Input
Amino acid sequence: MFDIRLSKLTKRFDNDLVAVDQVDLTVNEGEVMCLLGPSGCGKTTTLRMIAGLESATSGDIMIAGKRVNDLPTRERNVAMTFQFYALYPSLSVEENLAYPLHADKMTKAQIAERVGRVAEALDLKSVLQRKPHQLGEGEKQRVAVGRSIVREPTCFLFDEPLSRLDIQLRQTMRTQIKEILTTLDKPTVIVTHDQIEALTMADRIAVMRAGKVEQVATPDDLFSMPANVFIASFIGTPQMNLIDAELIGVGPSGADGWVDAKFRALGEEISESVRGGVADLPLGGKVKLGVRPRSFEFASRDTKNALHAVVDIIEPMGAETLAHLVESGQDLRCVVPYTTELSVGERVSVRAKRRQLHVFDSAGLLVE
Amino acid sequence: MARVSSNRGIGRKGWLYTLGAGVVSLAYFFPVFYIISTAFKTRVDALAMPIRFIFTPTLDNFYSVFVRASTEGGAGTETGFGLYFFNSVFIGGSSVFIALIIGTAAAYGFSRFPLRGNDTYLFIILTTRMLPPIIAIIPIFVLFRVFSLSGSYTGIIALYTAFNLPFSIWMVKSFFDDLDRDIEDAARMDGSSEWSVFWKICLPQIMAGLAATFVFAVILTWNEFLFALMLTGTQTRTVPVALARTIGGQVGVDWGLMSAIETLFIIPVVIVTFLLQGQLLRGVTFGTIRK
Output
């Protein structure tokens, strides 16, 4: 069983900075795990510890059931693609691709066969004799990927694989890498700060902040049930609205675990169907209501349970328009079809779509 | 040459720059030209004032570098300059080569496996080059006496190696420092041992830098006079010392002969520099043109 298991993994640097703090994470066989987080959150350090390029201060790194903490990098049989590709500048593309195979004591014919196969798959046949500095960004990226898949490692690591590519190339490569990863069927860890990259390529995403894993979930779950306000505002563009509110009443629990709850927010009293955990919160307690900009819909003036605000800024985004609304010092972001007629200064009413309102308790955790 | 440039439209300013550069180049080249031309002059032409630019060239000076005509007639005697040239090449070449090997290993260590107080060690190494060498001459002379190294190849090569080391370590370290560490990590991921990382990945990347270091060290060593004078013997004498010894005796200063020796002495350095010039240019601009 090929998997990666991190338990209580910690990295403390010489200057006492704790870069990775008690991280527990399991990447199953054939699973693509994205480590997602802002810069400096410890995601790259975690990756480098799995690779053996950084030593762990404490905790265990298990690859395929074996503790590898004390194994040097070359004995871990892990492949990694670096952010800046790290191609060997004095070697040709062909030699770059063949390099990992030399350690495996293969014959010349076997090496040529493997390199040929990878070059074919990644469309590198025509540049095999070139040196890295003669390649375009996309080609360099493909050579880097090729070099990591040319042998058969137990797992794959990618450090910001697409960050250097332009937008168009990025989309192509994203699809291509995803395809390759599906056929390889090995545990893979991808580090990225780009949520689109994470959401599109990952089977599961681990969101990191300040050295800790905040949540591990599938892209869908991460989006629909962010564990806390940090993730809620980190995932999804435009950012989720987090509205300060007060819980003033909870109705009877429904059969499906949802309840009707009453909140006071932006000077209005609204009643919404929310997850049943709300019943355990103290009445009169402070909460935050999370609503995605696309979960708002415009309502008529007299609609019940609507919030009212003034249009402040209008940003057309093509098929949709992002409207910034203001009320009692709170900003509301709201995405509506481009056909919606809006004018700055207009007072409008918005309402969260049914069951698309998240409640976060006073500690900022999602109420489930 | 200037005419070609004018076709491309370098303009008035370009002309002025070209002219200025030409004048400066001439000023720099003039002493070299003077020496080379003197090497082909007879004694009379060499001493003539004002300087003669038009004269009948002769190879006599080059001949007498190696064979001194007998004053009583008959066969000339060997001057031993063949040996001295060999000595210069052998002593200079091997000391620079050894310094480069040790220096590269040390530089890699300093760059990749820093010790506590790394910078202090590096500074200490540099201090050996801060004093004028003449200060060290007496202790080194005594040391050579005690260990019977005076006049031996071993002694002078060891000394030159020691002289070249600080420079080699510092220069090569800067090349290692400039390398992209991810590439080495990639090699480790690809199953390389630490030795292969150094040998197959790092070293090829700094070849230009090594070439530049080699040339600089060769030039320094090639011209060294003071220690060679004190510490070499008749069999290990280098060209600068032998050159100085031609002065005096019955003939006084034989300018033609000295110029011929110097002309021959310049040639190896010119060849080395010429062969490595491509690498040299990349070496001295290392870091500035990457990424």
